[in-house]
Amino acid sequence: MNHRVQQRLERLIAADQGALLAEAQVGLEKEGLRMAESGVIAQTSHPAALGSALTHPFITTDYAEALLEFVTPPSTDSAEALGFLHDLHVFTQQRLDNELIWAASMPCVVDGENSIRIAEYGDSNSGRFRHLYRRGLGARYGKTMQVIAGIHFNYSLPETFWPIYQQLEQDNQPLQSFIDQSYFALIRNVQRYNWLLLYLFGASPALCKSFLRQQSHGLQEFDRNTWYDPEATSLRMSDIGYSNRRRCRMQVSHDSLADYIKSLRWALHTDCPPFVALGVKVDGDYRQLNSRVLQVENEYYSAIRPKCPPLQGERPLLALQRRGVAYVELRSSDIDVFHSTGLNEPQLRFMEAFLLFCLFHDSPMISKSEQAEMNHNQLLAARQGRKPGLCLQQAGNERCLKDWGLELCFAMQGLCEQLDQAYHSDAYTQSLQVQIEALRDSDRTPSARMLAAMRAEHVGFYHFAQARSLDYAQRFRHTVLAPERERQLQSLVEQSLAEQQACETADQPAFADYLKAYLNQIE
Question: How many CB atoms lie within 10 A of CB 479?
Fold first, then answer.
């Protein structure tokens, strides 16, 4: 395994281009529920003091009106991205009055589906579209599943890297085709080894009983208010969490960009009988955008997705088709309750190195049998990842999770050393060592630490996460932002509100015509 990765890295270094790896861009998207003083999901509207959720570039909402989403701009330094995310937390918390930002992936008290307000984005066509899409998600999968929160890690190699890497690979196809091919190779390897990220960074081994009322789930009772799996790493990424991959026989290929687009086009053009039964527009009221397997392409849930920034009004799938892959979005990170922003710098450094490993490691196409093994491994790692002696499946054989994980980490050693050299630090090798120690001792993982702390404090999931949320809220409230950051974010509040107002007062077609035109882009 290490040979091919090391060979590609040595070629890059021999060409005196190893420093290009430090020019990769990273970005974060982090969700977090607003929680009311009573302990339930906040019922208030998205605060105007935060700007418009429709047009603000960095502070918006995801599924629910109370589900904040923080977005950082691309940066060539993970520490800078994390610092920006911290500032967004500070700016937001200081404008939430008596509410706070829930510090865990699994939600606080869910007082039934009616307690979850679907996000509102105003009266413009684009705002109504966003709301209606979320209404469809609730109708299809239930609202409760939609308020699970996570962190997305966006990653792209610099433009200057690709022609050099293509030359070293002795590839002569068009450059963008090579870039697409390389990113899809990375994506396939992430899918192969995503279980490692769940083991190392899974932070949702327990949840509030209000989340799973009257459902069969196979969890154990921690206390009268908490369900848990004693060896789980990430219930969020398990069969308990949000998933739609098996709906209506949907199978998405990651063999190539063309195959990926073809797969999603099928899902976007094919009716799904249960969704047909829901109805699209009933008694003049929309229930969903359409009755297809996917309403829109973003409904497809995966641990990692290829991305290309769409132009104004352009469908994401068309952006990919026209301009190719620009970056990848890694979606498997839980919110770590032990960190105020949900993750820390060593985790970010490790994920950078992990994605580079997935790029440089050979990546054959995924067969049906391997796909079945990958699904098995992810579920097993999510539900039983810390089980002593746990074995996964690899090419029909059993592999001990810890041994396989250590093999992967040792194969990343050269990449971490090169990244440290480029950054003039030891941050990457230190991060790698932290994860190696977590593989050797599962008590060092966030999921194990969380359960141990709950036992030590004699509290269930809700009270444990609430205490951390309150502590972080106090820290944020007493933090003074740098004046230039305060001015920047306050200016964006005013700008975003003005932009939403302009959207709503501009001449617009009837919503039905707007919806038809948008959906017909890929007809």
Answer: 15
Cβ atoms 330, 355 nearer than 8 A: yes
Contact 219, 402 (CB under 8 A): no
Only one residue has tokens 């008290």, namely 109
The domain limits of the chain are 2-16+26-243+301-506
* Separation CA 448–CA 443 (nearest Å): 5
User: What amino acid occupies position 113?
Assistant: E
Enclosing H/E stretch for 32: strand 25-35
| Three-class secondary structure of residue 393 per DSSP | strand
Residue 64 CA to residue 47 CA, distance in Å, equals 13
Measured CA to CA, the distance from residue 385 to residue 442 in angstroms comes to 9
- Residue 441, classed as helix, strand or coil, is coil
Radius of gyration of the chain (CA): 23
The four Cα atoms 499, 99, 107, 155 give a dihedral, to 10 degrees, of 40
Can you give the pLDDT of all 523 residues of the chain as single tens digits? 568 899 999 999 999 999 999 999 999 999 999 999 888 899 999 999 999 999 999 999 999 999 999 999 999 999 999 999 999 999 999 999 899 999 999 998 888 898 999 999 999 999 999 999 999 999 999 999 999 999 999 999 999 999 999 999 999 999 999 999 999 999 999 999 999 999 999 999 999 999 987 666 889 999 999 999 999 999 999 988 866 555 677 889 999 999 999 999 999 999 999 999 999 999 999 999 999 999 999 999 999 999 999 999 999 999 999 999 999 999 999 999 999 999 999 999 999 999 999 999 999 999 999 999 999 999 999 999 999 999 999 999 999 999 999 999 999 999 999 999 988 999 999 999 999 999 999 999 999 999 999 999 999 999 999 999 999 999 999 999 999 999 999 999 999 999 999 999 998 899 999 999 999 998 6
User: 2-16+26-243+301-506 — its CATH code?
Assistant: 3.30.590.20
326 strand-pairing partners: none
**Residue 71 pairs with which residues in a beta bridge?**
29
Torsion-angle region of 122 (φ positive above 0: left; ψ -120 to 50: alpha; else: beta): left
Judge contact between 147 and 116, C-beta under 8 A.
Answer: yes
Q: State the alpha helices, DSSP H only, in 214-293.
A: 257-269, 273-278
Distance (Å, whole) CA 312 – CA 295: 19
- Rounded Cα distance, 15 and 131, in Å: 51
C-alpha span between 495 and 473 (Å, rounded): 26
Q: Which H or E element spans position 282? A: strand 281-282
Could you tell me which residues come within 8 angstroms of residue 60 by beta carbon, excluding any fewer than 6 positions away? Answer: 53, 54, 68, 69, 71
